Amino acid sequence: MTHGHQGQLFNDRLWKVNRFLVRYFWKPLENLGAMDPTGPGMNYERRDKNDRNIIRWIEEKKQAVITGHSHRPSFPQQGAPLYFNDGSCVHPRAITGIEIQSGMISLIKWSVQTRKDYSLYITKDILEGPVSIGKLFETTK
After folding, report:
1. C-alpha to C-alpha distance for 76 and 53, rounded to whole angstroms
2. Sign of CA dihedral 28, 30, 65, 55
3. What SS3 state is found at 129?
4. Which of 5, 60, 88, 94 has the fewest CB atoms within 10 Å, i.e. is most exposed?
5. Within 13 Å of residue 96, how many CA atoms lie on the same side as its CB?
6. Start-to-end CA span in the chain (Å)
């Protein structure tokens, strides 16, 4: 499991430099309202490259990865590299997630819905799965 910024030079190899820059330069700018132009959520090219890097690592190491923070949920189809991405939780009316329960894994979405009386409630939708974790790993052997 990873936070989701792995696969990027500054977060993997230059993490000490990155930590310094975030702490002393980026944090004050962010507090003033600056938006991160380099994050995978807003930069589709960077997001695609990050996904490719993680998938390449999965294929080389023959290891599953559960990650997030890229703002694009992902759930592997049968025979594909075991790359699970929960997406993100910054949407105004919904969050996506990976749920593991009783040996099954699913991609889910929690969202705010409105009843006819205009009251709000939370609902869970299964977007992909559930799939037996054991069966997923059998296909990678």
Report:
1. 16
2. negative
3. strand
4. 60
5. 20
6. 20
Q: Which segments of 9-113 does DSSP mark as H helices, in order?
A: 9-12, 15-21, 27-31, 44-61
Taking the C-alpha atoms of residue 78 and residue 94, their distance in angstroms, rounded to an integer, is 27
pTM of this structure:
0.72
Beta-bridged to residue 124, according to DSSP, are: 110
Tell me which residue of 128, 86, 121 sits closest to 104, measured CA to CA: 128
Q: Look up residue 77 and give its amino acid.
A: Q
Nearest by Cα to 5 from 59, 76, 62, 53:
53
Averages of pLDDT over runs of 10 residues in the chain (141 residues) are: 67 76 77 64 71 89 85 86 84 86 94 94 94 76 52
Separate counts of helices (H) and strands (E) for the chain: 5, 5
